[in-house]
Design brief:
Layout (H helix, E strand, L loop, with lengths): L5 E4 L4 H18 L3 E5 L7 H11 L2 E6 L8 H11 L3 E4 L9 H20 L3 E5 L7 E2 L2 E2 H8 L5 E6 H6 L4 H8 L3 E6 L1 E2 L7 E2 L8 H11 L3 E4 L9 H14 L5
Helix pairs in contact: 1-2, 2-3, 4-5, 7-8
Length: 253
């Protein structure tokens, strides 16, 4: 059975990190997670304090989501990564102005440029998808325009398997299509009754053994649990269920 080290995207428990980042990561460690992926720093304001909180909880950062606007000060992006101790830097979202054929080409050029100073410091540039990237322009998906125009050696993918499925593309096939460019996988499940709703890993419709196997074959470094919205379930309980289900499926390295 193919296995991946499993991290958790702290965006899922953003209310907890906003109130007490250090306490929230202690709870995450208590579930059994050894890695976390950052999406902001909650109630903390200094990279050094984030590092102290992670060290105190005994968890390591697998990477961080960094808004594209933050790359206006790329030296700070690099410094934060070095202080906190992660190498995977991920742009998590783009606005409407990028969502054209020309916009994806522009984004590709920016990612290529961002990747150079990051790589010089041992950091890796990534892009994380939603489903809008699969909209087609003259018959070609925006996501394909992006990958065709980025440097395969320096710009990598964090593929979100829920959003690929939501875009009506098979996640396993797309992982295989990108191959070695797939460095990270976001693991979230799709509700059995409503494809517009998220659910805990293992409770929905996605085939995680096949997804993880394809990710391992491509060379992915981490699977990252994320659930954008948890609805009636407490977010900390959602990430606990996902962790336990991945463990039961034998997919956790």
């Amino acid at each position: 059975m193919a296995k991946l080290p499993i991290s958790v995207q702290l965006f899922t428990i953003r209310d907890l990190t906003a109130a007490d980042f250090a306490g929230a990561v202690q709870q995450v460690a208590g579930i059994g997670y050894k890695y976390v992926e950052l999406a902001g720093w909650g109630n903390l304001t200094a990279a050094g304090d984030v590092r102290k909180a992670l060290d105190a909880a005994g968890v390591k950062p697998s990477g961080a989501h960094v808004g594209i606007d933050q790359f206006k000060d790329i030296n700070k992006v690099i410094a934060d990564a070095q202080i906190i101790g992660y190498e995977n830097v991920i742009i998590p979202y783009i606005g409407d102005d990028y969502r054209t054929a020309a916009g994806y080409k522009k984004l590709a050029g920016e990612l290529n440029e961002f990747a150079k100073p990051l790589a010089a410091k041992g950091l890796v540039m990534h892009y994380h998808n939603h489903s809008f990237e699969f909209e087609k322009y003259d018959g070609k998906a925006g996501f394909d325009i992006l990958w065709d125009a980025t440097d395969p050696n320096s710009v990598k993918a964090e593929l979100d398997v829920y959003w690929i499925e939501h875009g009506r593309v098979d996640p396993v096939s797309y992982i295989k299509k990108l191959g070695k460019r797939v460095n990270l996988l976001h693991l979230k499940d799709m509700d059995k009754e409503d494809r517009n709703k998220f659910t805990q890993v293992g409770k929905g419709t996605l085939d995680f053994p096949s997804i993880v196997a394809a990710g391992v074959e491509a060379g992915a470094k981490f699977g990252v649990v994320e659930q954008d919205r948890c609805y009636e379930v407490m977010p900390i309980d959602s990430i606990t269920t996902s962790f336990n289900n991945l463990k039961k499926m034998g997919l956790m390295a």
